[in-house]
Every structure is written in structure tokens, then in C-alpha cells.
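Input (structure):
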């Protein structure tokens, strides 16, 4: 298990005199261990280069390389001059790389976007594969981290998208805001270099062993749910933003893969063998393209956390059951045909697809119009019923469905009509479809409704208990997380608070429904 205290101690030593830059420093170390690079956006004189110099001291025998880019920078200045003797005596084109980027552990490249195309192209493989092609020789680099900086974002139309995408972690760096910390900074005598005890420095051998440990960190199911929910929310937001002419989010598949690896690295360095909700908050420093997206990103991140948490503890299923019970089960006395309720909340559609069970929620059937078609979609429920379910179409719930694939559904006396074709619903045994529901049937259904409402109350109690346990675990983990700020911790707290509120609302609603069913029976 990772010694979290050692990482905390290392960050403390490296952070001496770096006022209000501790978070950026910690993210830089995280990126280094994860094998990623970091981009710092901010004006000159805000300690961006000092952060890179400090990171060199985190590694045993660490070497650094710094360079200020300009339009006139040449590859010789970054990767080393061409060896004249090799070219003259051996007819080989190669660079003398000693003391330049290919031999450094930590690299700082200032004004990164001013680099010319030849430098940019070489940097792509350096950043992604940690490889440099020196003539015909492929050099495996000792590189741990590239810190790039600029006071501007990459300009559009200059083919910088690929290079921009290589920087997984992105931070905005500003001047010191706190007055007392500013006074300490201007009066401080701490040098840019700090003395780091060798016992807490990181070695190349350790990093190789850690890489195996990081790959072994477990990814729980809720992480995958969170990713898919967040991607769906991004797609929905981008459609709206494009219509308004606002900036869009773009997250490549490669970037998602790297983010998951970053979450694993975060969990590992925090001494855990499984990714936590708190680790997912690091998404906030990985997907923005402009600082103006911060507020939107925070909202989308919160919504995705809420939805993923609720899905994990089973809130949507219980919410659907409650809606079906409220709108379908409690209104059964108004029916003129006794359709059979199957699997607690559904009617079964007969002969729609031979050999397959097709269901529709009772409440969604009751809401159908006899003459106004309503769009539905057919979804497969592998987890609960094992059947196909005809669900009312909602764009937010089914963003990938094309309009041509929608099914137009209306209600009929004996069932429903789908795209002009009629299908009957499975009826109770002996029912001829013309008689009203017998009073004994109504009473039976009301008893069933009361019992189901009580069952939902009980299940919500279990969900509430699971959430409470999860909250305790996450609260302890997030409080001492090495790579988060207080504002990010608040995002998680607010998300879990919303989940708790939603569960409480469902508990109240189900209790009221249970009492109402009991009154009708009496």
C-alpha cells in the first residue's frame, strides 16, 4: 500500500514559499506519477517556472530543462544541436542531446504556443509516448513531466489542437489574492530551490513499481456510470451551446482513457486500492478549453455525480416503481378492461415480437391518448425484467435515438396501436374485455398497492442506509485528499446532499401513498 504520509511530506517540502500555488504543485506531481503533462495558464511572474523547478527536486538525481519559446526557436535549442562529426565522419544525422530536453526528467516550456511546426510535431510523440526520434535512433526518454505555460490559450486555425489535447491537466495560475500571504511572499527569503530529503524523493525504480500498483486499482461500476452520464450531459449542453454560439466542450476518447488512469493514480497516491467519488472531481482540471467554462463545468460535474450516485444506490428504479404505483396501480378502478399486471409494474404486449417479452409501464399506458400519437422507444432491460420495454421517449433519457426510429403509440380498447398496427395487452384470466373490473378485483389491487407502497418505503430505508455509509466513507476520504481544493470538496458534499434530499422526498411520497391506500381499503 502506498505511503500517503510520504507524498504529503514531499508536497509540504516542495511547497515552501509557493503561496496559493500548493494545489497546482500537487496536480503537477500527480501528473508526473501518472505519466502526463500539465499546462499552466497565467501572466508572467506567477511562479509557473518555480513550480517546474521544484518538481525536479521530487526525483532522485532529477535533471531539468527550461526554455522560453519564440517564433524563431529552432529544434537545435530544444533537442540539441546536430552532431557535425557524426554527419561528416559517419554520414549520420543525429543530435547531441545531453543537457537538452531528451535527457531531462522535468521540462518547463514557456510560451508553448509560439513554437514552430517542427518543434510542435516532435513534442507530440515526446508528450504522448515519451519517445524522441534522434535521426534513425528511437530514444526512450527519462521524462517524468512536461510543464508548459503561456499567458494565452492556443489560437484557432494554427493547428494546435493535437498539442493542446496532449496536456491532460490544465490549471489557471494567478497572482496571490490573500493580503497576508502576499506580505509573506514579498518578505520571504526562501529560494526557488528547496532541500528535499533523499529519503522522500522518488526514484525511477519506485515509479515503475507504482505503475503496476496503479494499473491494479479497481474501477467500480459507478465510475463507468458517471462517465457515460457526464458524456451524455456534455452532448446535450453542446447542442444548446452551439445554437447560442457559445464555446463547446470536446473530450477525445484518448483523453477519457487518460483521465481514468489519472483517477487511478490519485486513488493509489492517496493510499487506496479503489477509485472513489472524490477522485472523479479531478475531471474539473481535465476537460475545460477556456476558463469561462468553469461554472458550467461545475454544474455538469455536480449533476453527473448526483445521477451516478442515485443510479448506484438504486434511486431511479424505486422512483419508477413509485410513479407506476401512483399513476397506474392506484387508478385501477377507472379501467374498463382488466389487464394483467406482470412483474409488479407492467402490462405485457401480446404478439408484438414473437418469442420476445415486450412490456409497458402501467402508468405510461394509462397516460396514452386514443387519438393523439405519443412517441415511444423500445429499450432492453437486461438487469431487472430481462424483457424489452416500450418507454415514452424523452430526449434527455434517449439522446442517441434518431427521429425515424421512434414508435408512434395510441391507446385502444383492448391494448394499443404502434405505428398503425394494433396489439392487445395480456388480460386477467377469464376476462372478456367488455365487463368493468369486479369490486373484488379493485379491492385486491388496492391491497396490492398498499403492500407495494410499504415495500418501497422499506427499500428506500435500505437505500438511505447504504447512502449514509457511503457518505461517511467519502467524507473521510475527501477531507484528506492530496489533490483537491476546498471548493472541489464542496462539490461532492453538495452532490451527496442532493441525493439525500431526493431519497427523503421519495420516502415521504411513498409513505403518503401507503397511508392513502390503507384509507381506501378501510
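Output (sequence):
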Amino acid at each position: 500500500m502506498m505511503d500517503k504520509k510520504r507524498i504529503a511530506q514531499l508536497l509540504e517540502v516542495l511547497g515552501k514559499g509557493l503561496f496559493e500555488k500548493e494545489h497546482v504543485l500537487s496536480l503537477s506531481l500527480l501528473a508526473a506519477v501518472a505519466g502526463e503533462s500539465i499546462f499552466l495558464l497565467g501572466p508572467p511572474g506567477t511562479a509557473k517556472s518555480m513550480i517546474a523547478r521544484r518538481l525536479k527536486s521530487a526525483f532522485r538525481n532529477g535533471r531539468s530543462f527550461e526554455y522560453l519559446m519564440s517564433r524563431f526557436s529552432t529544434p537545435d535549442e530544444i533537442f540539441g544541436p546536430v552532431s557535425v562529426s557524426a554527419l561528416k565522419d559517419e554520414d549520420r544525422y543525429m543530435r547531441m542531446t545531453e543537457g537538452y530536453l531528451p535527457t531531462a526528467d522535468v521540462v518547463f516550456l514557456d510560451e508553448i504556443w509560439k513554437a514552430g511546426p517542427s518543434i510542435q510535431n516532435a513534442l507530440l510523440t515526446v508528450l504522448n509516448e515519451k519517445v524522441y526520434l534522434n535521426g534513425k535512433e528511437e530514444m526512450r526518454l527519462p521524462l517524468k513531466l512536461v510543464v508548459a505555460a503561456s499567458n494565452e490559450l492556443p489560437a484557432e486555425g494554427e493547428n494546435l489542437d493535437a498539442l493542446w489535447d496532449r496536456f491532460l491537466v490544465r490549471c489557471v495560475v494567478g497572482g496571490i489574492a490573500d493580503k497576508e500571504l502576499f506580505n509573506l511572499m514579498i518578505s520571504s527569503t526562501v529560494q526557488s530551490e528547496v532541500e528535499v530529503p533523499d529519503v522522500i524523493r522518488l526514484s525511477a525504480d519506485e515509479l515503475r513499481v507504482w505503475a503496476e500498483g496503479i494499473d491494479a486499482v479497481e474501477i467500480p461500476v459507478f465510475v463507468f456510470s458517471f462517465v457515460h452520464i457526464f458524456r451524455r450531459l456534455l452532448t446535450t449542453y453542446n447542442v444548446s451551446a452551439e445554437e447560442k454560439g457559445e464555446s463547446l466542450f470536446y473530450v477525445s476518447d484518448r483523453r477519457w482513457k487518460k483521465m481514468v488512469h489519472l483517477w487511478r493514480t490519485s486513488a493509489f497516491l492517496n493510499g487506496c486500492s479503489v477509485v472513489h467519488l472524490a477522485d472523479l472531481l479531478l475531471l474539473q482540471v481535465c476537460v475545460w478549453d477556456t476558463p469561462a467554462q468553469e461554472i458550467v463545468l461545475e454544474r455538469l460535474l455536480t449533476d453527473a455525480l448526483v445521477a451516478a450516485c442515485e443510479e448506484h444506490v438504486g434511486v431511479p428504479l424505486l422512483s419508477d416503481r413509485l410513479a407506476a404505483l401512483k399513476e397506474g396501480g392506484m387508478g385501477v378502478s377507472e379501467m374498463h378492461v382488466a389487464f394483467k399486471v406482470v412483474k409488479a409494474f407492467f402490462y405485457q404486449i401480446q404478439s408484438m415480437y414473437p418469442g420476445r417479452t415486450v412490456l409497458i409501464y402501467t402508468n405510461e399506458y394509462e397516460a396514452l391518448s386514443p387519438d393523439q400519437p405519443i412517441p415511444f422507444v423500445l429499450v432492453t432491460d437486461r438487469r431487472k425484467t430481462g424483457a424489452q420495454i416500450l418507454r415514452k421517449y424523452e430526449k434527455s433519457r434517449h439522446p442517441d435515438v434518431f427521429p425515424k426510429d421512434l414508435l408512434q403509440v395510441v391507446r385502444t380498447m383492448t391494448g394499443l396501436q404502434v405505428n398503425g398496427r394494433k396489439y392487445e395487452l395480456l388480460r386477467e384470466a377469464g376476462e372478456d374485455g367488455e365487463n368493468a373490473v369486479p369490486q373484488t378485483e379493485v379491492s385486491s389491487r388496492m391491497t396490492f398497492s398498499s403492500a407495494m407502497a410499504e415495500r418501497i418505503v422499506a427499500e428506500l430505508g435500505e437505500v438511505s442506509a447504504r447512502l449514509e455509509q457511503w457518505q461517511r466513507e467519502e467524507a473521510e476520504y475527501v477531507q484528506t485528499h492530496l489533490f483537491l481544493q476546498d471548493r472541489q470538496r464542496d462539490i461532492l458534499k453538495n452532490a451527496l446532499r442532493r441525493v439525500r434530499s431526493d431519497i427523503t422526498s421519495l420516502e415521504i411520497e411513498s409513505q403518503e401513498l401507503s397511508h392513502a391506500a390503507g384509507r381506501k381499503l378501510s
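Notes: The first strand starts at residue 38 and ends at 41. The chain has three domains: 1-199, 310-314+439-521, 336-424.
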